[in-house]
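Extended Data, panel c. Modelled sequence:
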Amino acid sequence: MTGDIRSSTFIMKESIDFRQFATLVNVLVATVSKNLRRYRGWFDKFTGDGFLAYWVLGDRHETDYLAEVVSMSRVIVNAFTDKVEPGLRRNARNFPERSGLSIGLDSGPGYFAEVAGQLTVVGPPVVGAVRMVGAAEPREIIANVHIGERWLETPDLLRETDVEIIADVRATKEYPKGQVVYKIAKPTLSSQALAG
């Protein structure tokens, strides 16, 4: 999972109080980290305008993780929309239209590695999640084909998570003319469910 605060450099540039900007971004990072533990995920790092997070497959089948990933994605998007974005607007001279948090999802074999003295994950799913978040609009959750097809094959999971999966075509770095992606529709979740 990759999260990206869209238009973050413009939001920071337009901030009246930079400490307030940092405090609000910290609210997002703390909420993501806390909720990832709740959903058995691993918060890897804050990237300056977003984050990287992972679920490590154990003995369960990969589809068993999908409900957790969807729920976590919804919690994060709503945490930003409900708790962070209003404060960013109040702290801004001007506020860009295309702002909000986007989530990108990918799956596949990744590898643990030590980089700059920190444990992280490297491999195709990291690149794929970054490509998916790049294809997402603000407040969207976009998954690659592998994940999207698993959701479509699991109707009980769709009912459990109360989402719709919509196939779409979006331009990415590798496929500038477009590639198939899956949008998770109805990503709203009551802010009462936020643990952060």
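DSSP finds six helices and nine strands in the chain. This feature is highlighted in the accompanying rendering.
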